[in-house]
Design brief:
This protein has a domain of 82 residues: Winged helix-like DNA-binding domain superfamily/Winged helix DNA-binding domain (Arc Repressor Mutant, subunit A). The chain contains 9 helices and 6 strands. The strands form 2 sheets. It has a 3-stranded antiparallel β-sheet with strand order 1-3-2.
């Protein structure tokens, strides 16, 4: 068994099946290392599982084997032979073939498996694999991926409520395009000072201290509301994942 070389391979584009297979190998390497490297049967099961997959697939072992061989030719997948020689196992070489950090690999894994997501959802799901302690830590990892043109977003990463997605779709593939959100409206321009205005100034009642305080409180409440919406989306995502896992477990137990 030979080790993968450290030669870097650029991440450009993958087919739908390639993204799913590579995402499964990345995910399982993080979450169940004792079951990794993986057999063809285990990879197929991971591709078709109901939770944390969008869309849900129904690939055959032949589909997955063909995809593994494609990824192996590129250099992102390795095939290992056991001592008995009966069972082949597969592993990814993303850590060797790219310079991505562990948080960035976890983020890419989630985007490969589920596609477009909001920041709160993405952080919750990626944190199953690698600790991402804050939204700021998530943004730092995302900015690095954005500089490499591996991800795309529909707005500045500092803005709330934006979506991010990977940028590894195959040429000509039909998928949801990211539409940039409109920027926040600028402050209205000041009215030009005219000679008439100078000659006959219009009296304006001075803004009271209480009005200023109310405006600041409204701004603070709006910011808190956006934070709560992000947290709610994250909780909903966790709840849906738990329901999916419960349904999978119930079916396995014959319930």
């Amino acid at each position: 068994m030979s080790e993968a070389t450290s030669e870097q391979i650029p991440l450009t584009e993958f087919s739908r099946k390639q993204r799913r297979v590579l995402g499964v190998l990345l995910e399982k390497a993080f979450t169940v290392p004792d079951q990794y490297p993986m057999t063809l049967k285990a990879i197929t099961t991971g591709c078709n599982q109901k939770n944390n997959r969008d869309p849900v697939s129904n690939y055959t072992e032949d589909d997955v084997l063909d995809t593994l061989q494609q990824l192996q030719k590129i250099g992102f997948i390795g095939c290992l032979h056991t001592e008995s020689g009966r069972t082949e196992r597969y592993r990814h070489y993303m850590r060797h073939k790219t310079k991505l950090t562990e948080p960035q690999l976890a983020i890419i894994t989630e985007l490969l498996l589920r596609g477009r997501q909001q920041l709160g959802e993405l952080r919750t799901r990626a944190s199953r694999m690698v600790a991402i302690d804050s939204q700021e830590a998530l943004r730092v990892a995302l900015q690095g991926l954005q500089e490499l043109d591996i991800i795309q977003s529909n707005g500045n990463l500092d803005r709330r409520g934006i979506d991010v997605d990977h940028n590894l779709y195959a040429t000509g593939e039909n998928h949801d395009q990211m539409t940039m959100l409109a920027d926040e409206p600028d402050e209205p321009a000041a009215a030009p000072v005219t000679r008439a205005a100078v000659a006959s100034p219009v009296y304006q009642q001075p803004r009271s201290v209480s009005d200023s305080g109310s405006s600041e409180r409204v701004t603070a409440l709006e910011s808190q509301l956006r934070d709560l919406k992000d947290e709610l989306n994250s909780v909903r995502s966790e709840f849906r994942d738990l329901l999916d896992k419960f349904e999978d477990l119930r079916r396995q137990l014959g319930g």
